[in-house]
Write a structure and sequence with these properties.
Elements: H1 3-16, H2 21-32, H3 36-44, H4 50-62, H5 69-76, H6 81-94, H7 99-107, H8 117-126, H9 131-142, H10 150-163, H11 169-176, H12 182-190, H13 201-211
Helix pairs in contact: 1-2, 1-4, 2-4, 3-4, 4-5, 4-6, 5-6, 6-8, 7-8, 7-9, 8-9, 8-10, 9-10, 10-12, 11-12
Length: 212
């Protein structure tokens, strides 16, 4: 058992313990011994507790089993930040081609923006075509006055800096003027290549004539 699975099991055991000794034993068994079919069965059984579903989805996800996808996406936008983080890690390992689109939809959903941080970080990790547009759109909405989701805005700023796409320059320049985001936005801008400068037409003609 690697350290990530061990840490997850320790956390979920604390949830299972309230259900009794058998639940704790079941938690350990799912973490150590359960095979893919049994884990998939946990996900399809609506009567299983949340801790069991999270453990099963994580193990299937890191094993690249696509049956984990739907459950992991649900956990990616969960109100519990630890569940969100676990889901993001498993989705990154899963490598499902649907992941970026799902993460972008969650990141840009204003009704669930309070829980969008991990979706933003996952999009940064994936470096998918959907990543930069989703992070720009999410950050633009966070630049209104007194927006309460500064943590999401900071995740967008950091992600755009990592991705280094010139399309992000405008929104990051706006973020530089926003209280609480200025330093992070400046640091992100420093990682993005400067816009290409176009030479005047007359100079291009002279250069072309000289070459001729």
């Amino acid at each position: 058992m690697n350290k990530e699975l061990r840490a997850l099991t320790d956390r979920l055991r604390c949830e299972a313990v309230v259900e009794g000794e058998r639940a704790v034993e079941e938690c350990e068994r799912l973490a150590r011994a359960a095979g893919p079919e049994e884990l998939a069965g946990v996900l399809s059984d609506p009567g299983r507790p949340l801790w069991a579903r999270e453990l099963a989805a994580y193990r299937l996800g890191v094993a690249k089993d696509p049956r984990a996808f739907e459950t992991l996406v649900l956990f990616l936008n969960h109100r519990d930040p630890q569940r969100c983080a676990t889901a993001a890690q498993a989705l990154a390992a899963l490598g499902d081609p649907r992941t970026a689109r799902a993460a972008a939809a969650l990141a840009t959903n204003e009704l669930r923006v309070a829980y969008a941080g991990q979706a933003v970080r996952l999009l940064t990790t994936l470096r998918a075509p959907e990543s930069v547009p989703a992070l720009i759109a999410t950050l633009e909405r966070r630049l209104v006055r007194n927006d309460p989701y500064r943590n999401v805005a900071l995740a967008c700023v950091a992600g755009l800096g990592v991705l280094g796409d010139r399309r992000a320059r405008r929104v990051l320049q706006a973020a530089e003027q926003h209280p609480g985001l200025g330093a992070a936005a400046s640091a992100a801008l420093a990682r993005i290549p400067a816009p290409r400068t176009r030479r005047p037409a007359e100079l291009r003609k002279k250069e072309a004539g000289a070459e001729g």
